[in-house]
Amino acid sequence: MAVNRSQRRVGAGLAVAGVGGLGLLVGLVLGVSVIAAWLAPAPGNPADSCGAGSAAPGGTVVVGPAGGGLTVGASEYGGPGDPSSGTVGASGQSLATHPDSYAELGGTTFQTATAMGGLPYMTPLRISVGDRSAIAYKRDFGLGGGPVAGRPRVIDLWWRLAGSLGIPYERGLWSGPVRIARAPATGASALLSAGVGAGAQAGLGAVSAPGAQAGLGAVPGAGCDLSGAGVPITAGPAARLLPGGIAAAPSGAPAAVRGMIAAGNAIAGRPYVYGAGHGLPLDRLSPAYDCSSSVEHLLWGGGLLPAGYGAASSALESFGAPGPGRWVTLYANPDHVFMYVAGLRWDTWNAAGAGDGSDGIGWHPLVRDASGFVARHPVGL
């Protein structure tokens, strides 16, 4: 969480008396409303509903020419002159290794920080200062403070992002105007030339697997093809773990199962962070996941959940129908959830011991103990 001086001075500049103070307050409230409307995704824009591209490779900020947008008040946080902010964002990500980060201001959680309309976690914005711009991603939030040059203070720039834009480091005390805009329709990937890890090996591209399959269609509101075309195929009756941590789908698997495997391949190997992935639509790729958010991403990939779904593992105890399924079985309790897709286990750790694959999120080849878990399956699978 952004905890720089802008948070400690929350409300500074707003608590002014008299008619002039009321006018300033009303003006700033209206300004925030304008910002939220400006940044709202265009209805039906697949680039917004299916992820706006991939972040820059760790440790880099890619700088481009200046862009347009709305001028807002900004401040910076972090760095040696602002030790109270630390180096870990509220998302659990290391901001030292992800300098292309910003914090939306206005609240104490990702949901209540609404100075720019309550942007979802990892929303990309083009931020321009002078003749430079960079695509940055929401990995943090903070309370903020008073207006900057008469404009609402709505965004904190991680100090290394600020530096890449030519902002001189002022020991966490800089503030000034910047221009912000939604990322281009093609997302940041066009600017940053960044892939999506294992998903790209499975033919997923930056969003999801291409190619429609009759009878599956898209989840309402998702705006994406969830067919799983392009996922590796194996001739056997069960899914198979391939080198690199991705899975091949059985040739006879339904389209929904192929879509789930494609979705899993897109995030296999990403780090486990408790609470990560929640608050982000399921059709956007998160840099980290926990057990329930990763399972929900796979279920979305199979067309079984809408993109806006987000619940804890305990809610999955009542998902679908009771008992094991033919193709897909979830095992859930209040603390954890894992699943089998075409016989291959999706889990967040190598719970079955040696030989059970990586110790992170992804496909695991061994069967684990399911004592204390409720078995559920998607209807028809």
Sheet with the most strands? 6 strands, mixed, barrel
Number of strands: 16
Rg, Cα atoms, Å: 22 Å
Strand content: 15-25%
Structural class: alpha+beta
Order of SSEs: HHHEEEEEEHEHHEEEHHEEEEEE
Give the rounded overall mean pLDDT.
Answer: 76
Distance between the termini: 41 Å
- Residue ranges: pLDDT <50 for 5 or more in a row? 4-28, 42-53, 185-227
Strand numbers in spatial order across the main sheet: 2-6-3-5-4-7
Helix content: 10-25%
Query: What is the count of DSSP helices, taking H or I runs of 4+ residues?
Result: 8
**What is the general shape?**
elongated
Descriptive tags:
six-stranded antiparallel beta sheet; 381 residues; 8 helices; six-stranded mixed beta barrel; alpha+beta; single chain; 18% helix
Topology of this protein?
Elements (H helix, E strand, L loop, with lengths): L4 H4 L9 H22 L6 H4 L13 E3 L4 E8 L23 E5 L18 E6 L2 E11 L10 E6 H6 L10 E8 L6 H4 L5 H4 L31 E2 L5 E2 L5 E4 L4 H13 L23 H11 L19 E2 L5 E5 L4 E5 L2 E4 L14 E3 L9 E4 L4
Parallel strand pairs: 2-6, 3-5, 8-10
Antiparallel strand pairs: 1-5, 2-7, 3-6, 4-5, 4-7, 9-10, 11-16, 12-13, 12-16, 13-14, 14-15
Helix pairs in contact: 7-8
